């Protein structure tokens, strides 16, 4: 496995230079683009990695999976009154469907959907970001994880688009808390810094029928776990979910920090990271790395 990961690293490093680091969040634009990491964490607790797998990066939209998990644990089926389960076919920060569809976002992974989920978590926790941070630290087995204040502040300063979505949903009656407070929680969650190893471990419960082996906790039921994986397979990569299904064939979640996590159900979780993005806001080298991985071992949830 180590040799395979090294060969994938060699294959994708030459792609660095062909994408573009996210710059709509100014604090992210200063990241060194010349980095690639990959880590695999198996259901037996084996860890494999290559490249800069221990370099921390901004997890961004990958945090939406942690928020969704916390919301499912508390709200169960009721939450689906407020957010859909269909792919959007639009960029992650698009506003167009929201008005046509009466303020109910298509799915929990586009920004509008994640903001509704953050609103749910805001109603439930006195300190929503700290509850989330605690949850992520446990899942990753790393008590030192924290949010990058510079990134969170930069996101808040340039919040117009996310704020527009949240206020539009409030106008439709699908937002209960103070918009600015929810935006702070949401940006702090997105600004969590983690590395490939942390993320592969933190997502391992989704490969293991909801069970997290290092905490000994059942995070989600087996049924809820397959449901989350289903949503990740259909919407985790936004308007590139179809392309990801075609090339990689696994449930996955990307973030504009350049990380992508993918799940091989009943076997392992994998995280790749390289900061330069393609047009859909997904890591360019990361996509190719996951394709090479699934191809060389012949893994896909589609048979
Ligand atoms: N796709 C992403 O990673 C986007 C997350 C980012 N924090 C935003 O709200 O725009």
From TrEMBL:
Secreted found in the keyword field: no
Keywords: Acetylation, Hydrolase
Alphabetical GO biological process terms: glutamate biosynthetic process; L-glutamine catabolic process
GO molecular function: glutaminase activity
HAMAP family: Glutaminase
Family named by the database record: Belongs to the glutaminase family.
Name of this protein: Glutaminase
Gene: glsB
């Amino acid at each position: 496995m180590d040799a395979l990961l090294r060969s994938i690293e060699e294959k994708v490093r030459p792609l660095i230079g062909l994408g573009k680091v996210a710059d709509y969040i100014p604090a992210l634009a200063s990241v060194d683009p010349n980095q690639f990491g990959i880590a695999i964490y198996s259901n037996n607790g084996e860890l494999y990695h290559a490249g800069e797998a221990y370099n921390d990066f901004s997890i961004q939209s990958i945090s939406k999976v942690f928020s969704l998990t916390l919301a499912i644990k508390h709200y169960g089926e009721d939450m689906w009154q407020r957010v859909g389960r269909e792919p959007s076919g639009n960029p992650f920060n698009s506003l167009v469907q929201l008005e046509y569809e009466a303020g109910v976002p298509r799915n929990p992974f586009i920004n509008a959907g994640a903001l509704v989920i953050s609103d749910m978590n805001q109603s439930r926790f006195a300190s929503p970001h700290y509850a989330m941070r605690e949850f992520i630290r446990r899942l990753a087995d790393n008590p030192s994880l924290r949010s990058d204040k510079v990134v969170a502040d930069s996101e808040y300063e340039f919040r117009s688009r996310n704020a527009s979505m949240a206020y539009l949903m409030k106008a439709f009656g699908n937002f209960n808390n103070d918009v600015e407070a929810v935006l702070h929680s949401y940006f702090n969650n997105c600004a969590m810094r983690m590395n490939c190893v942390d993320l592969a471990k933190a997502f391992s419960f989704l490969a293991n029928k909801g069970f997290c082996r290092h905490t000994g906790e059942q995070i989600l039921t087996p049924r809820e776990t397959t449901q989350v994986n289903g949503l990740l397979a259909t919407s985790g990569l936004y308007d590139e979910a179809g392309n990801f299904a075609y090339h990689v064939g696994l449930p996955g979640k990307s973030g504009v920090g350049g990380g992508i996590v993918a799940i091989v159900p009943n076997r392992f979780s994998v995280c790749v990271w390289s900061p330069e993005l393609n047009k859909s806001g997904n890591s360019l080298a990361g996509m190719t790395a996951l394709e090479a991985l699934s191809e060389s071992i012949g893994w896909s949830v589609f048979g």
